[in-house]
Design brief:
Layout lengths: L1 H18 L4 H19 L16 E2 L10 E4 L11 E17 L8 E8 L16 E3 L12 E18 L6 E9 L3 E2 L2
Antiparallel strand pairs: 1-3, 2-3, 2-8, 3-4, 3-6, 5-6, 6-7
Organism: Paenisporosarcina cavernae
Pfam family, one: DUF1541
Keywords: Signal
């Protein structure tokens, strides 16, 4: 399937080049857009459902905006079918959430700006939060090839993260124990 998508992407790129861009800027924008689309396609390997296990050392939030059992609407679009889904809160935890970029350990295409891993999902994590540009070793398996990858921190945010159950808006598939959405990616119904 991945080879088909890559072939389809290359066909589209070739087609764009054959049509001829009006100037070099248009060509660069088209290539950049195709690369962005290809990177987003890599998120199709994201493990949407999880076991419900939380990393060692992760502490429950004492006063979260959304309590376990509450429902909320997801405003994030990490994956197709996630935005505007009705979520049930399974867990709320205080931590630092990171967006990361990394080359998968299974040889897949580089993943840019993956949201989110948390501080407790970093191998041998320091006591202090990491900063943009720091390199870390990931010990989370949200996507194939993520566990053990060396990642660059794209952003860091101290926040409440939530584990949620929801139904995909595109397919109706049920997702259980999805890790993670941040507090600003949820809104009250």
């Amino acid at each position: 399937m991945k080879m088909f998508i890559s072939a389809l992407t290359m066909t589209a790129i070739t087609g764009l080049a054959a049509c001829g861009a009006s100037d070099d800027m248009d060509s660069h924008e088209n290539m950049g857009e195709m690369k962005k689309m290809d990177n987003e396609m890599d998120h199709s390997e994201m493990e949407m459902s999880g076991s419900g296990e939380v990393p060692t050392g992760l502490e429950a939030s004492e006063n979260p905006t959304f309590e376990v059992g509450d429902t909320a609407i997801i405003t994030a679009d990490h994956m197709e079918g996630m935005k505007d889904a009705k979520a049930t809160i399974v867990g709320a935890f205080e931590t630092v959430a990171y967006s990361i970029s990394y080359d998968p350990t299974n040889g897949g295409q580089r993943v840019e700006n993956h949201k989110w891993i948390i501080h407790e999902e970093i191998q041998d994590a320091t006591d202090e939060p990491y900063k943009t540009g720091d390199e870390v070793k990931v010990k989370a398996d949200h996507m194939k090839g993520m566990d053990g990858a060396i990642a660059t921190i794209d952003s860091a945010e101290e926040t409440t993260v939530y584990m949620v159950d929801f139904e995909m808006t595109t397919t109706g598939d049920k997702v259980k124990n999805h890790k993670w959405v941040t507090e600003d990616e949820l809104t009250k119904q």
